[in-house]
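Subject: for your reference before the review

Hello V.,

The reviewers asked for a structural picture of the protein, and I figured it would be easier to keep everything in one thread rather than splitting it across files. Below is the amino acid sequence we used in the manuscript, unchanged from the supplementary table.
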Amino acid sequence: MIYKSKKASKAVNKICVNVMTRKSIYFRRNLCINGVSTKIKIIKIKDKAEDFIYDLDQNSKDVCLLLEHTSKIILSNLKTDLDIVGTDYYDKVLVKGKLFANKENLINWTKQGVRNIWLFKLNYSRKLFIRINSTLSTKEAI
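And here is what came back from the structure prediction:
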């Protein structure tokens, strides 16, 4: 036993787990729709969004991308079509749309009040029953 007590061992293990989750590309919680948790993992993107978006295709399982604090994106030469959803700071869906492959996609939703952009694989927003005024967040309802 390296540590003097089990309590110290658990504390160090907890710190190690926290460090590993921060270095992961996945957000620590899953996607919640209208307060109900799903099995879809969230990849939170701060910079170099194009690299992650180009790799999101039909082969990736149960993943969505979250671009926080942005309402504008410009993408060109995507591999596949994608669904795009815009939410405000209160997690309410304001706008839905599609991004098309092999075309320059310009999204500017500042006038609609969009603050976060979510990207899904094609037809996932229909599969998950995401509609205008739905709640799309990273936390369950309490």
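For the response letter, the relevant points are probably these. The radius of gyration is 18 Å. The mean pLDDT is 81.

Happy to draft the paragraph if you're swamped.

O.
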